[in-house]
Amino acid sequence: MTTVRLPLFPLNSVLFPGLVLPLNVFEERYRAMMRDLLKTPEDEPRRFAVVAIRDGHEVAPTAPGMPDQTAVPQRGPAAGFGDDPAKAFHEVGCIADAATIRERADGSFEVLATGTTRVRLLSVDASGAFLTAELEELPEDPGEEAGALAEGVLRAFRQYQKRLAGARERSLSTGADLPDEPAVVSYLVAAAAMLDIPAKQQLLQAPDTATRLREELKLLRAETAIIRNLPSLPASDLTRGPTSLN
């Protein structure tokens, strides 16, 4: 078992390998994390782990900018995650490699990272300025019939995109824009589909690529059928994602 200890960045979203993650970092615990990552030589990866929050707050309650300005803010690396932070997070997450970490004049950071490798959360350490975690790296097993399944998922995804865009609008992506490597297809579709966090989390932690693709095929067909019966549903842009506020 290959394990690694990395800074831990909990989010109200799921990060997949190969997907880009923009971050607007303003809380002190995450500023401290970015300052620490900037100590890493430029020719080495600046890695941290992203996990989806199961029970807790991405931004600590009553932090600056929150509605109640009179309350005493929660502080510390585990603020908003309870007495046992590990229980507040989903078990499987993704390592992120920060290609860009830019400090602003007010001390906040603009970060652009990319998901690389799935990891399983083994333990969480809240003794420092920011959370760190012991993580087990998870291999990507292709499973059986991943290639054929990927082709089916791409066809279903194109139909899903067309339904979202609307009959009178141009499809959000052409076939030339989509990959054909099964694992890449599985992660791209998981990230782009309009699914809630539990559904995306289930896809992230699938035991192999083929299992993930099979589940995506079912989800896409179900979602497309729903959209077909809701002609007034507004078009959604799958090519962009909001910057996470932390």
TrEMBL record:
Protein name: Lon N-terminal domain-containing protein
Gene3D superfamilies reported for this sequence: 1.20.58.1480, LON domain-like (2.30.130.40)
InterPro entries: Lon_prtase_N, Lon_prtase_N_sf, PUA-like_sf
Species this chain originates from: Streptomyces albiflavescens
Domain of life: Bacteria
Domain called Lon N-terminal: residue spans: 6-224
